[in-house]
Design a protein that fits this description.
Strand content: over 45%
Structural class: mainly beta
Number of strands: 10
């Protein structure tokens, strides 16, 4: 018997502005840098709002070229609710020179209330660069149903 594949539903798309990378350099575990998160906005069927400045994406590039992503930041829904986001994942350059493979597992920490549903599901996401080449990333988040 073949198991049914997992299904997902779209949760939100975020346009996140970023600052100049803070380069740590090569350490015992690979090349390290931190990308400051400077703001942005997000929108989805059940939630929308803004990305708050002050977070960061701590990146490590391993010896095999794979980038480990560890982002920690906050979003604010239009109703004023602040939600903590931890978004971990990996990025691998495309061997054909196309769009890199960047996949994440976002975790939300919302207070009790209208956005508590974010605490009760598993999410997966993707990260890409905007087509206009601006200093930003586009994050798409899906709930595993």
């Amino acid at each position: 018997m073949t198991p049914d594949p997992l299904r997902t539903e779209f949760v939100l798309e975020a346009y996140v502005t970023i600052g100049v990378p803070v380069k740590v350099g090569t350490s015992k575990d690979g090349y390290r840098q931190m990308i400051p998160i400077t703001g942005g906005q997000f929108e989805g069927p059940r939630i929308e709002g803004k990305v708050l400045a002050g977070g960061g994406d701590w990146q490590r590039v391993r010896a095999d070229g794979t980038m480990e992503i560890e982002a920690h930041y906050m979003i604010e829904a239009d109703d004023g609710t602040k939600i903590v986001v931890r978004n971990n994942g990996i990025g691998v350059a495309s061997p054909e020179g196309g769009e890199p493979y960047v996949r994440t597992v976002p975790e939300f920490e919302a207070p009790k209330g209208p956005h508590d549903w974010l605490n009760k599901s598993l999410f997966v996401g993707s990260i890409s660069r905007p087509e206009d080449g601006s200093a930003a990333v586009v994050i798409r988040v899906f709930r595993v149903v």
